[in-house]
Inverse folding.
């Protein structure tokens, strides 16, 4: 499998994957992503900023994530405490294709992001998720992310996690 930057031509496929994830969140009873976000404009912004990444099997897009090597302003204020100060990678808008569900693809995606971070000499990953996104909470726990407290996006509290990577 290959983790690479997405191309503009892949926006329709990425949006299809995200729409399925939005529907799944709703079916699971989650409030996450039920307010018009993410949307095609947020994905276009990811593409424009170089944040849009896809995990492929060489032919098909299996997963999408916004991977940001930089500062997330919402992370400047946390009710709790981050494990580290300094440079970090942010992961947002993670979604797997319907065909990839229950196959460990999201876990594999996170491992690939960890490798990408190390390759770029960034040894901290920060991520947040809704309190009711059970699949994501399980992945973060399974991969050793530490719960650090709460951050706020669009007026809502989110669980914030960090993982320190080996140097």
């Amino acid at each position: 499998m290959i983790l690479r930057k997405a191309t503009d031509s892949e926006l329709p496929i990425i949006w299809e994957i995200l729409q399925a994830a939005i529907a799944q969140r709703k079916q699971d009873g989650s409030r996450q992503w039920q307010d018009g976000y993410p949307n095609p404009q947020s994905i276009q912004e990811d593409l424009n900023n170089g944040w849009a990444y896809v995990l492929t099997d060489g032919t098909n897009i299996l997963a999408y994530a916004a991977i940001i090597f930089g500062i997330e302003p919402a992370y400047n204020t946390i009710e709790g405490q981050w494990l580290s100060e300094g440079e970090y990678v942010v992961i947002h808008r993670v979604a797997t294709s319907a065909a990839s569900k229950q196959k460990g693809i999201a876990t594999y995606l996170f491992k690939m992001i960890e490798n990408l971070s190390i390759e770029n000499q960034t040894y901290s990953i920060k991520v947040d998720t809704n309190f009711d996104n059970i699949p994501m909470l399980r992945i973060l726990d399974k991969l050793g992310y530490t719960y650090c407290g709460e951050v706020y996006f669009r007026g809502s509290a989110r669980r914030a996690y960090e993982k320190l990577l080996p140097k």
About this structure: The beta strands are 2-5, 52-56, 61-69, 79-80, 89-96, 124-129, 146-153, 156-164. The longest helix spans residues 11-27. The radius of gyration is 15 Å.
